[in-house]
Design brief:
Two copies of one chain form a homodimer.
Chain A (H helix, E strand, L loop, with lengths): L8 H19 L4 E2 L1 H8 L3 H9 L5 E2 L3 E3 H12 L5 E6 L3 H7 L3 H4 L2 E8 L8 E2 L2 E5 L3 H8 L3 E4 L6 H11 L3 E4 L11 E4 L2 H22 L1
Parallel strand pairs in A: 4-5, 4-8, 5-7, 8-9, 9-10
Antiparallel strand pairs in A: 1-3, 2-3, 6-7
Chain lengths: 216, 216
């Protein structure tokens, strides 16, 4: 029987931040922390933190707080960082190359094991030790390696077609860096909208500039 | 007197999504939309939408809904996309190149007008029509152009030093792609954590995999 509680995506989206923060605490040899301290340092209310972590059964103890290592491991497990997910990158342009080089992914439990492109000038070249393969080899590769995740860094116009091709090959999750929102049946998709974060920065910059003006 | 209401950052973070969605509606020649329709299509409750937009004075009319063009313009103004912000990229590696080529930024009101690096092999080369300059030229460039935003795509270990150098040059906002959280006095910083979104994807993949198991 499936007894797991459905956790809201808003909570899930906050978990990687806890995970990062706890990782830093571990590196500073902090062994335990209260929800109040977590709250102050992360800018989230203590009650929000307790509520978030309670979704997964707690982990905290009254009067003791949280054991940093235990909480770190548990959140890692919840997020699936113990799954040793393998991922391929489709699109060996600048973004694909930048991501293949992003050293944080392995720390989070993700391994890039294949890079694909259609450009014959790129096929056969090595990127961070991985030989770029033709997209025509993707089907066999995904089946042989049971790869579930594809990182899409192809030009805008090709995104949908390539995503559908990946889904047919057996890919179950797409991390999409093109500016269009993808929806593919039976495939989970995270659409990365880099400009969103830039616009938040622009808003905050506008805010401080206006404060300066009012201060005069 | 400053009569502006302080808007919570949670609301601000949702605005770019409205902005993107409204942009798509405009492209489909949709001229008006109710909060209910917005709600269904965006997966946000109608009351949340009304609440979000009320922070800035509304824009909707009972029984009519929202004028898409007006709402799009207003949200754009709130986010500062009418400010014609100029930004420099520091770090001409793969990520810097990928971002300099990201055609969405201009659509959102941001122009990349300079790229800097310390690598003498890159200095003088052109990336998307912009000549890579030495970081030693950054000070003069930022002052001359009154550039306020810097996009940081330098290696992890150099991030803090480069960020401080940019702040000294007069940069007021940093969009930081390195994996470390930056804090620089009097400078607004948006730290981009790409792995966070990958981990959310991993969580959702784990969820559907476990559902499959329970379905058997």
């Amino acid at each position: 029987m499936n007894t797991r509680k459905k956790v809201s995506i808003a909570v899930v989206k906050r978990l990687p931040r806890y995970y990062r923060y706890l990782y830093n605490l571990l590196n500073e040899n902090v062994t335990r922390i209260s929800s109040k301290e977590l709250s102050i340092n992360m800018g989230i209310t203590a009650s929000q933190i307790r509520q978030d972590l309670n979704c997964f059964g707690g982990f905290g103890q009254q009067g003791y707080g949280y054991n940093v290592q235990v909480l770190y491991n548990e959140i890692g497990n919840i997020l699936g960082s113990n799954k040793n997910y393998q991922a391929i990158i489709i699109g060996a342009g600048n973004m694909g190359r930048a991501l293949s080089n992003y050293r944080n992914f392995e720390k989070r439990g993700y391994e890039i094991n294949g890079i694909f492109d259609i450009d014959t000038n790129l096929i056969g070249k090595k990127i961070n030790g991985i030989v770029v393969m033709s997209i025509d080899e993707m089907n066999d590769f995904v089946r042989k390696n049971s790869t579930q995740i594809a990182i899409l860094t192809v030009p805008h116009d090709n995104t949908k077609e390539v995503a559908e091709r990946a889904a047919k090959a057996g890919i179950k999750a797409l991390w999409n860096f093109s500016a269009i929102d993808l929806q593919i049946p039976d495939v989970v998709v995270e659409n990365v909208h880099l400009s969103d974060s830039l616009m938040v920065l622009g808003y905050r910059l506008k805010e401080i500039s206006e404060e300066d003006k009012f201060d005069v």
